[in-house]
Amino acid sequence: MRIVLGVEYDGSGFFGWQWQQDGLRTVQDEVQKAASRVANHTVTVICTGRTDTGVHALEQVVHFESHAQRSQHAWLLGMNANLPDDVRIIWVQEAVGDFHARYSAIARFYRYIILNRPTKSALQRDRVTWCHAPLNAEKMHLAAQSLVGTHDFTSFRALKCQSISPMRLMYFVDVYREGEQVIMDISANAFLHHMVRNIAGVLMAIGKGEKSIEWTRQLLLEKNRQVAGVTASPHGLYLGGVYYPEQYQLNKHPIFEKLPANAQRFQHEGK
User: Could you confirm whether 52 is annotated as catalytic?
Assistant: First the structure.
């Protein structure tokens, strides 16, 4: 039986999602240990997308195989009882058909939160990125629209990114202000390594007036990471949700109402 989970975690105490041989604390390791205890056999979990050190998740989606006969409620309660306080399973269901947490996904949604005020926060220090200089959210939003559509995102990928292709389909990028926070909501069929944080860094430079609105379009054409500025901090980054085709009958974040009607035909583009 293939079991699917929605996982929420505070990434500030982890060295990313992926299990590591040197014993560093990772989210995958904690989830696998909890699932293995409930299943009474060794379990390996596969996620939608690996998150880096310090990155959080509102809804990471994972699946694993098990022959154990457990109800969805038993999986939920049992795993949460065996997880640390900074990781929680928020829903459980059996997989439908050929569902795969990574390869069945049509779109990923990330949220990047910037605290934009003169002083840092004591309470949110690991959950937001701080920027003391005033940011113009409207200019940031306008600049981000150049990224929508299918593009070569070489200028926005990490130099050590292992993806075969730099091509990705960006569904939407929305930047807006809520009080002292500037928020970026971004969705694509898939993301390159550090792509969201590199986009955030570029947009912050534009929001501070250091670069023009046209800079994002210029960087796409440059196809050169070294001219694209700094990588923003991981602390404000959240994997917000994952969208799957209707036949898999999975819960979906309402943000995906913004996806174009023809999104499903792009399911395998840019993987």
Answer: yes
- Listed residue (99, 199, 104) closest to 147, CA to CA: 199
How many whole angstroms from its chain centre is CA 49?
7
CB 204 within 8 A of CB 114: yes
- φ, ψ of residue 28 to 5 degrees: the values are -55, -45
Residues of the chain with CATH 3.30.70.580: 2-104
pTM: 0.91
Spatial neighbors of 142 by CB under 8 A, at least 6 apart, are 213
CA-to-CA dists, residue 37 to 20, 40, 64, 74, 82, angstroms: 20, 5, 13, 12, 8
Residue 271 has pLDDT above 60, yes or no: no
CATH of 107-239, one of 3.30.70.660, 3.40.50.300, 3.90.226.10, 3.30.565.10: 3.30.70.660
> Active-site residue among 10, 52, 86, 98?
52
Give the whole-number percent of the chain exceeding pLDDT 90: 82
Identify the CATH number of the domain defined by range 2-104: 3.30.70.580
- Looking at residue 264, its pLDDT comes to 62
State both tokens at 118: 């003169």
What span, in angstroms and rounded, lies between the C-alpha atoms of 153 and 2? 34
For residue range 224-268, list pLDDT tens digits in order. 998 888 899 999 999 999 999 888 988 777 888 888 776 665 554
266 to 96, 158, 254: CA distances (angstroms)? 21, 24, 20
- pLDDT score for 167: 95
The residues of the chain that CATH labels 3.30.70.660 are 107-239
Say how many Å lie between the first and final Cα of the chain, rounded: 26
R_g over Cα of the chain: 19
